[in-house]
Every structure is written in C-alpha cells, then in structure tokens.
Design a protein that fits this description.
The protein has about 100 residues and is α+β, with helices and mostly antiparallel strands. It contains three helices and four strands, in the order E-H-H-H-E-E-E. A four-stranded mixed β-sheet has the order 1-4-3-2. The longest helix is centred in the middle third of the chain and has 13 residues. About 15% of the residues are buried. The N terminus is likely disordered.
Length: about 100
Amino acid sequence: MIADKQPKTASPPEPLELGQVVITAAANAVLSPEEVLQAISRHTYGDWGDLDEEDRRANKRALMDCGRIFSVYHSAKHVKFYIITEWNRMYTTVLLPDDY
C-alpha cells in the first residue's frame, strides 16, 4: 500500500474579533487606505508584524486570556504604525507611535 504523500494543510486561524475599527487623524494623514487595510487583515489573522518575541508571547497569552492585542507595521514610506485591539474586542485602533 502506498502512503498518501499529499501535504496536510492546517486549517486557517480563527479571525480576531476587531469590534469597531478606528484610525487616528495623524495615521489617516500619512497612511494609504490600502496599507491600512492590508495591515488590518494581517492583524486579524495573527500576523503581528514587527513585534519582538516577548510581545508575540504577550499576544498569544492575550488571545487565551482576553487581553489587548498589539501589532507593529511599517508603510511603504517607512512610517511605523500600530494596530491595537482592546481586551474586550470592542475597538481596534490604527495609530502612530506619537498617538500612543
């Protein structure tokens, strides 16, 4: 009998509940809508961008304990920005570091 050599595909992760998505005026002024939407999609599915390992572990704990989820991204023009989903999943905010 020949074993099935088809690769097993993992089921996609459950999307993060975002609640109402808002963006600060400063972030809205410098980020393109496409970059924001792409980053929100990444955030929703657990790609938290440029986080260090400690913050990644904190996000994993937050998923289990209903904590705040934090992501860091950079625009095509090298503008650093954050996406934060609150612990109660009622709000997700796109903001610049100076807005924090």
